[in-house]
Amino acid sequence: MRDDRSVKIATFNVNGIKSRLANLLQWLEREQPDVACLQELKADSFPEADLREAGYHGVWRGQRSWNGVAILSRGDPPQEVRRELPGDPGDDHSRYVEAAVGGVLVACLYLPNGNPQPGPKFDYKLAWFQRFIEHAATLHACGHPVVLAGDYNVVPTDFDIYNPRSWLKDALLQPQSRDAYRRLLQQGWTDALRHQHPDEAIFTFWDYFRQHWERNAGLRIDHLLLNRELAPCLVASGVDSWVRGEPHASDHAPAWVQLDLGKLAKKKAPARRAKATS
């Protein structure tokens, strides 16, 4: 990526990279994101050769049968910064990876689902979220352009779901989950999709039950958050919803932002000292 051109950064929960590799490659070929953050790889291996043939390099952290995250990029390979969320050395879930790509710091996350709640899985979700909030504060203040992209497993408001009534007991809608998301945004992050589509019912997830895809009965749980350096670069955002309608599709569709990195604030060079006159 170069600072003088527009780039597309996307996030996509693939729900199994081995079983849905053809879907992933189809999306990459058609939409050609410059950076793609992937979640729920559900594998301890990675199809690097297939992705390189498609024009993408990647950093990834896998886990057999569960979780798993990756950052893909066209052109220059992503430079890994970290591969785990700070704050709990005993947490061995593959849910976080961070890399520098073309001058942008990209964090890819797969936040715990938390069901059933209440219970230990929900407690883990909230504890993980708190660790993420603390780390995100350091990223927001780092002075570099940053995007936090991934499956947050949080429906921020009732406007982000087709009908909240049947999901009232779900961990994705609990007040504690929504409060954590609000506290994250209060650091100064811009929720790109909602910022650009304030009045649109926009969804990124449709489960496999009760014809939810066919009825557009969806949820918005995949988010891209931009820090104060990167937010002014936002020119477009959306969801590649066609992906959800393909055969053997993931229950998520990719969400994306288009950024004009030419708008990044230029750091002022220090003023030259005037020459002393005799």
Describe this structure in words.
With 278 residues, the chain is of the alpha+beta class. It has one domain (6-263): Endonuclease/exonuclease/phosphatase (Deoxyribonuclease I, Chain A, 4-Layer Sandwich), CATH 3.60.10. 19% of the residues lie in helices and 24% in strands. The protein has helices at 21-31, 48-53, 120-140, 175-185, 192-196; strands at 6-13, 35-39, 56-61, 69-74, 79-82, 96-101, 104-110, 146-151, 190-191, 222-226, 234-239, 255-260. The relative contact order is 0.17. Residues 267-278 have low confidence and may be disordered.
Q: Class by helix and strand content?
A: alpha+beta
Query: Quick one: overall form?
Result: globular
CATH architecture: 4-Layer Sandwich
Query: What integer value in Å does the Rg equal?
Result: 19 Å
Share of helix among residues?
Answer: 10-25%
Strand content: 15-25%
Describe the biggest sheet?
A: 6 strands, mixed
The rounded distance between the terminal residues' Cα atoms is 49 Å
CATH topology: Deoxyribonuclease I, Chain A
> Count the helices. How many?
5
Q: Please trace the helix and strand order, writing H or E for each element.
A: EHEHEEEEEHEHEHEEE
The total domain count is 1
Number of strands: 12
- Low-confidence segments: 267-278
Mean pLDDT across all amino acids: 94
CATH hierarchy, class: Alpha Beta
Strands in their spatial order, largest beta sheet: 3-4-2-1-12-11
CATH superfamily: Endonuclease/exonuclease/phosphatase
